[in-house]
Write a structure and sequence with these properties.
15 helices; 5-stranded mixed sheet; disordered C terminus; alpha+beta; globular; disordered N terminus
Length: 413
């Protein structure tokens, strides 16, 4: 096993723009369930395979020099450049043997092949070099998914796996890294953009074994006996006991929550609570009686529209204040009133439906002339009716429906 394989690099704590921090943020390390911070800080260094400071000093200096010399170019170049000029030299200096994507077989069951499959022994590396995908995974120690240097690791993919996040690509590899009996070939995988390195494990396992937290509850000591081995988040204390996450929370926190909601007070959730609880409570107090049903919504439409003009990017509001049709705050199908992120499967489904509807309308002699007319007025091109999304705005479509209702009734019934 390469002694240096545990090396980590700095991560950006301002992930997703919400300034959220994972469990146990400590400088360059951030633990989110794979390891506890206590394990990383106190126990990992005592593991037999963990390299000493003297063992890694040379490799660390060489990697730092590579980074210093190539940082400017890395920021300008693509993923291939990051792989060849930065990631591969790092992997080599850490003692890994690797098979790159272009040398892998094509019979992977995953949506895409990983960028690298890593090996700890020469014999496994040699055997895997001419093997099928299943054998490659069986002999490998782990896999690496690489991105362009500095590319956000929480951004949807637009190319190789459209609509997937990079972490989903990693989970796809882990889901297929097992034999016919479900036994795992490896338990973790690496996602990196060169600047940030993440280690993922299979969501359903810890250490390759199915978790059973309900069986661990009897092992919990009394509150006075719990060692709070994770950094606190304000007034909330955290601990990991076996497979269980344990928290000590002031009762006042839940009493202050909107609708007195009960939730697990993990650091990221508490950051959301601090950001949104107070403004949401204020908005509900001010607006609820004016949006609680369709009649109230319609009766206060002027005030609601005036409120819309006060909204600014980054602000907080209620779905019931911006959703069409007086949906209010009730549980309902608001999906058709909101938007989907471009590149997601849901957005692709909307584009598919728009193409089907446009083809159907253009195929109806009683509808096609009006459809072409209003599509042109809205700035669209009848030759490519789905290309310009602005031409399909709800207001335009509603105007079109109103003006051509009789044509629809004749053409579709």
């Amino acid at each position: 096993m390469p002694r240096q394989r545990r090396n980590t690099a700095p991560v950006d704590p301002d992930q997703l723009g919400l300034n959220l921090r994972g469990e146990g943020f400590e400088g360059p390390l951030e633990a989110r369930g794979v390891f506890s911070t206590a394990y990383l800080a106190r126990h990992l260094r005592n593991a037999p395979d963990f390299a000493s400071e003297n063992d890694v000093t040379t490799a660390f200096r060489e990697i730092a020099e590579i980074w210093r010399l190539r940082l400017t170019a890395l920021g300008r170049q693509n993923e291939a450049f990051n792989c060849s000029s930065f990631l591969e030299p790092i992997l080599d200096r850490l003692g890994w043997l690797r098979i790159p994507q272009q040398s892998m077989p094509n019979d992977f069951a995953t949506r895409k092949r990983p960028d690298y499959c890593l090996f700890t022994s020469e014999s496994d590396f040699t055997a895997a070099s001419e093997a099928d995908a299943n054998t490659l995974f069986r002999l490998g120690a782990t896999v690496v998914e690489a991105k362009k240097y500095g590319h956000p690791l929480d951004q949807l993919s637009n190319n190789e796996t459209p609509g997937w996040f990079p972490s989903q690509q990693i989970q796809d590899y882990l889901n297929h890294a097992k034999d016919a009996n479900g036994r795992r070939f490896f338990n973790w995988a690496i996602l990196t953009n060169g600047s940030e390195w993440r280690i993922y494990t299979d969501r359903s396992t810890v250490g390759g074994t199915k978790t059973a937290p309900e069986k661990k509850l009897p092992l919990l000591p009394a509150a006075s006996g719990i060692v709070w081995n994770e950094p606190p988040t304000g007034c909330v204390r955290h601990a990991t006991v076996e497979e269980l996450r344990v928290h000590s929370v002031p009762r006042a926190l839940y009493a202050d929550a909107h609708k007195r909601a009960f939730f697990e007070p993990r650091p990221g959730t508490l950051a959301l609570f601090d950001r949104f609880n107070a403004p949401v409570k204020q908005l509900v107090s001010e607006w609820w009686t004016r949006i609680e049903d369709s009649r109230a919504f319609a009766g206060n439409l002027g005030e609601i529209r005036s409120y819309h003009r006060t909204l600014r990017p980054g602000g907080v509001t209620l779905v019931g204040l911006i959703a069409e049709g007086g949906q209010g705050m009730r549980t309902a199908n608001n999906a058709r009133f909101l938007a989907y992120l471009e590149g997601t499967p849901q957005a692709g489904e909307l584009d598919k439906k728009a193409a089907e509807w446009s083809a159907a309308w253009l195929g109806k002699p009683s509808i096609a002339p009006a459809f072409r007319q209003f599509l042109t007025e809205a700035g669209g091109n009848p030759g490519s009716p789905v290309r310009n999304r602005a031409a399909r705005k709800p207001a335009r479509v509603g105007h079109f429906r109103k003006r051509t209702r009789s044509a629809f009734e004749r053409g579709l019934h």
